[in-house]
Design a protein that fits this description.
Layout: E1 16-17, E2 20-21, E3 27-31, E4 38-43, H1 47-66, H2 69-85, H3 87-98, H4 102-122, E5 129-131, E6 138-146, E7 149-153, H5 161-173, E8 176-180, H6 187-199, E9 206-209, H7 214-223, E10 227-233, H8 236-246, E11 252-256, E12 261-265, H9 271-283, E13 293-299, H10 303-314, H11 335-350, E14 354-357, E15 372-375, H12 382-385, E16 392-398, H13 401-409, E17 413-414, E18 416-420, H14 424-433, E19 438-441, E20 456-457, E21 460-461, E22 474-482
Helix pairs in contact: 1-7, 2-4, 2-5, 2-6, 3-4, 3-6, 4-5, 7-8, 9-10
Bound molecules: nicotinamide-adenine-dinucleotide (NAD) and the ligand O=C[C@H](O)CS(=O)(=O)O.
C-alpha cells in the first residue's frame, strides 16, 4: 500500500504514544471495503497501552497548558498546513480503508484540517469576565482554564474529520488528547499523528490508539481518573454505554450520536432544488453520515413530480470503487452493513412499500448496495424509524404542515433536519418546531466549521466547531478578591 503514496512515511501501523510508535504483540487487519482485501496489519494496542497514553497526556499537560495560546496556535497552524500539503495521500489512505469516493475523501481532509485552523484562531480569543459587585471592597473575576486530559473515541465514517473536530479544540484550549480510532479505519488517525509529530506538537500532547477491542480500551478511557473529559462520536447505543462508564469519575462528557434526518418537501418548494438537495444529502458517503437524509416527506400535491425527478436522478448515480474516477457512491463499510440494509428494504416491501429503483444485491461485491428509492413508505415502518446509514431513500407522503412536523419529530433522534419551502412564514414556523440541533432550509450542505454542530434528544449533547466549540474543553473559575 505504501507504494501508492507520494509520502510513504504517512502509512503508520502502530499506535502513537508519548511521541513514539509503540510495538504490539498482536495485530489486526485493515480491510479495503471495495474488494475485501487486507490493506495492512496494524499493531493492537492493549489496556496497558491505553493507560500509558493517558499517563503520557497527563505528564504533558502542565507544559502544554502553560504555553501561551499563541504558541499553541502556531503549532496547530503548522499541523493544518501539513494536512493540506499531504491532502492527496491522506485522501487515498482514507478511501482505501473507508470506501468513500476519492473526491469526498479529499473534501473530508480539507474539512478536518479546517477545524485545526479554526481552533488555532479561536484559541487566542478565550476571554474571561470582570463582574461588578455590591461591595466596594470586593472584586470578582472569571477565568477559563483547560480541563486537562481529554479522551476520545470516534467512528469509521469520517476517520479524519471526527478526530480533528475534537483534537483541534482540545489542544487549542490547552488540553492534551488520547484518541481511540475505529478499528475499521485506524490508518487515517495514525497519519494525523505522524503529521502532528512533524508539526512539532510535543510528545504526550496528541496520542492515537489503534485497536480492534474498543470495549476494553473504552473502559480504560472512561474510567481512568486522570481523564477529565470524554468525548464520543458514534451510535446512540454505544454512547449510552460510555456515558454510564464515565459516571464513576464524573467526567465532563460530550456525545455526538446517531440521527434520523427528515427531509420535507412542501408544496411551495422549488422541486428541482429539492431533488438536488435530497440527492446530495442522502447519497454522500453512500448514505453513511449521521446527518444524511433518512426519511423524505413529500406533500401529496407534488409527490408524483418530485418522485419522478428524484428517481431519475438517483438512477444516474454511478456505483463503484472509491478510487475509480466518476464514482458517485462507493461501497458500504462491510458486507454485514449491506445485509442489514437489504433486510430493511425487503421488510418494507413486504409491508407495502414500493421499490422505485435499486434494492438488489450488487455484482460489484458484497459491500456494494445500489442507490435505492422506496415509495409508499409509512413513518412507522422500520425503514423510517431506524437510522439507515445506507444509500436508501424512503419516501413518505403527507397532506398538511402540522402532520408532517409531527411525523418528522416522531423519532428519539434530534440531530439534523431539512425542509424546502419558499413561504417565509412557514419557514420560521417549521424551523422553530423541528426538534433537531441543526436545520437546513433549502440547503443540505450544512456542515460548517463555524457553526455549532450537535444534536438534541438521543442524538447527544455538546457542540463541535464554531465559537462554542472550546467551551467543552474549558473549566470556568471565578476569583473573589477582598481588597
Ligand atoms: N453525531 C455525529 O457527529 C456523528 C458523526 C459520525 C457518526 N455518528 C454516528 O456513528 C454511528 C456510525 O459509526 P459506528 O458504526 O462507528 O458507531 P459505533 O457506535 O458502533 O462505534 C463508534 C466507535 O466506538 C467504538 N465502540 C464500539 N463499541 C464500543 C464500546 N462498547 N466501548 C467503547 N468503544 C466502542 C467503535 O470501535 C468505534 O470506534 C452512527 O450512528 C452515526 O450516526 C455520529
Ligand atoms: O457523520 C457525521 C458527520 O459529522 C457528518 S459531517 O462530516 O459533519 O458532515
Amino acid at each position: 500500500m505504501e507504494n501508492l503514496l507520494q509520502d510513504s512515511g504517512l502509512l503508520k501501523t502502530d499506535s502513537y504514544i508519548d511521541g513514539a510508535w509503540i510495538t504490539s504483540n498482536t495485530t489486526f487487519d485493515v480491510i479495503n471495503p471495495a474488494d475485501g482485501q487486507t490493506l495492512v496489519s496494524v499493531g493492537n494496542a492493549t489496556d496497558s497501552d491505553a493507560k500509558a497514553a493517558v499517563k503520557a497526556a497527563d505528564d504533558a499537560f502542565a507544559s502544554w497548558s502553560s504555553l501561551t495560546s499563541y504558541d499553541r496556535a502556531d503549532l496547530l497552524h503548522k499541523w493544518h498546513q501539513l494536512m493540506m500539503q499531504h491532502q492527496d495521500d491522506l485522501a487515498l489512505i482514507l478511501t482505501l480503508e473507508q470506501g468513500k469516493p476519492l473526491s469526498e475523501a479529499k473534501g473530508e481532509i480539507a474539512y478536518g484540517a479546517s477545524f485545526i485552523q479554526w481552533f488555532a484562531q479561536e484559541s487566542i480569543r478565550v476571554y474571561g469576565d470582570t463582574i461588578p459587585t455590591q461591595d466596594r471592597h470586593k472584586r470578582v473575576v472569571v477565568i477559563k482554564q483547560p480541563v486537562g486530559v481529554v479522551a476520545s473515541i470516534t467512528p469509521w465514517n469520517f476517520p479524519n474529520a471526527m478526530i480533528a473536530r475534537k483534537a483541534a479544540a482540545a489542544l487549542a484550549a490547552g488540553c492534551t488528547f488520547v484518541g481511540l480510532a475505529s478499528g475499521l479505519t485506524p490508518l487515517s488517525a495514525l497519519a494525523m499523528a505522524e503529521l502532528a509529530d512533524r508539526a512539532g506538537i510535543p510528545k504526550g500532547v496528541f496520542n492515537i490508539l489503534a485497536s480492534d477491542d474498543a470495549p476494553s480500551i473504552g473502559k480504560v478511557l472512561t474510567r481512568d481518573a486522570l481523564v477529565k473529559k470524554f468525548t464520543f462520536t458514534g451510535s446512540t447505543r454505544v454512547g449510552k454505554i460510555l456515558t454510564e462508564q464515565c459516571a464513576s469519575t464524573v467526567k465532563k462528557v460530550s456525545m455526538e450520536l446517531g440521527g434520523n434526518a427528515p427531509f420535507i418537501v412542501f408544496e411551495d418548494a422549488d422541486i428541482e432544488q429539492a431533488v438536488q438537495g435530497a440527492l446530495a444529502s442522502k447519497y454522500r458517503n453512500a448514505g453513511q453520515t449521521c446527518i444524511c437524509t433518512n426519511r423524505i416527506f413529500v406533500h401529496q400535491d407534488i409527490a408524483d413530480t418530485f418522485t419522478e425527478k428524484y428517481v431519475s436522478a438517483v438512477t444516474e448515480l454511478k456505483l463503484g470503487k472509491g478510487i475509480d474516477a466518476g464514482t458517485n457512491v462507493g461501497p458500504m463499510i462491510s458486507a454485514a452493513a449491506v445485509s442489514k440494509t437489504h433486510d430493511l428494504v425487503q421488510q418494507a416491501v413486504a409491508q407495502g412499500a414500493k421499490l422505485a429503483c435499486g434494492g438488489n444485491l450488487s455484482p460489484l461485491g458484497e459491500s456494494f448496495y445500489p442507490p435505492t428509492v422506496l415509495t409508499e413508505v409509512d413513518n412507522t415502518m422500520a425503514v423510517a424509524q431506524q437510522e439507515l446509514f445506507a444509500p436508501v431513500s424512503p419516501i413518505i407522503q403527507f397532506n398538511n404542515e402540522a402532520q408532517v412536523v409531527a411525523m418528522a419529530n416522531d423519532t428519539p433522534y434530534g440531530l439534523a433536519a431539512y425542509f424546502y419551502s419558499r413561504d417565509i412564514s412557514r419557514i420560521w414556523r417549521v424551523a422553530e418546531k423541528l426538534q433537531f440541533g441543526m436545520v437546513g432550509i433549502n440547503d443540505t450542505a450544512i456542515s460548517n466549521t463555524a457553526a455549532p454542530f450537535g444534536g438534541m434528544k438521543q442524538s447527544g449533547y455538546g457542540r463541535e466547531g464554531s465559537k462554542y466549540g472550546l467551551d467543552d474543553y474549558l473549566d470556568i473559575k471565578y476569583l473573589s478578591f477582598a481588597l
